[in-house]
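Schema walk-through. Below, the input block comes first and the output block second. Nothing else is stored per chain. Lengths vary across the set, and this one has 99 residues.
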Amino acid sequence: MFVPHATAGIVVLEIGAGSDDDLMDALDRLLPREDRWYRHRHGSPGHGADHVLPLLVSPSLTVPVVGGGTTLGTWQSICLLDPNADNATRSVQLGFLAG
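--- output ---
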């Protein structure tokens, strides 16, 4: 799968139980939202950090599909991660290879 956006990535993560909030908190520590850190400054405050996100979160992910379903672990979910508040519409492209 692939997300064709400059500020988005795809992650495998346990959601709920606070893990999703922990992820966002960790990103805020790694990529501070203060504009003083970035040259890319259009959009909402901290938007420069959104454009650095692909260094940490890939825009693509490969997950095996067997018998019509993903082979994720019990607590794993596939999540679209995009902290960019300027654009709420995103798309994900899926491709399948027969084995």
